[in-house]
Amino acid sequence: MDIGIARTFLEVVKTGSFVGAANKLNLTQTAVSARIRVLEEQLDRPVFIRNKAGARLTPAGEQFLRFATTLVQVWSRAQRAVALPPGRETVVTVGAELSLWNPLLRHWLLWMRRECSDIAVSTHIASSEQLMEQVQDGTLDAAVLYAAPRRPGVIAELLFEEKLVLVRTTPVSDPLSAEDHVQIDWGDDFAASYQAAFPDQPKAVVSISYGPLALEYILATGGSGYFRKGFIRPYLEEGRLTLVPGSPEFSYSAYVAHSTKADAGAMDRVRKGLHAAAAIAI
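RE: above sequence
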């Protein structure tokens, strides 16, 4: 079995169409169709029913799905195993959203170096959607992210629970207008909760998708915004920011997601390190 064919099959399942899979894999639609045709010839069964809406699995395709996932995951693990650095027993690949990199992943890397010197580590930064896909297809052993939608073959475990709080720059005697509020992208759940809490708030003049950049901006210009409480604690203690009295707080939980087929022993150590890092960072 060509692993490329298995990956193509999985991408058609994820996107629901041959066109979507072609775009994701940087292939032509003809190449995707050819790979699926080879798979169907090898299985002697059609795996997709194709129509104007896209492609859906046949009963044979449903059966092949779990084996295709396992094939890709085993191949990814095999590639990592044969490329082990000297003195290491295994390698783990862990991904995270950009906003979780510092300080959480930094503390985790230091913990792994100190407590698990026999394990090689590879880290990766991506969006939550990409991370979940990579855990599901075996490219990543684990991912740390703020949103962990249910996926077949993936276990999501609560890592820590944090609050998003509204802060403003000081001194408080300096007036702020509605235009001084910076909208930060904390995901769809936050956006819906924020809209419900502030239904009359005008659309933000400045929107920033990355929290640390938004913080630098309001510290330089003056303003307000919602930030992770643990992240802005030093600025509150220094008096450079202050909480806005009476403002609602929103829950913002982080999870560690890993494949059910990941090495259980290695995952136990990775998870232990992440919890230890979270205890320091949050």
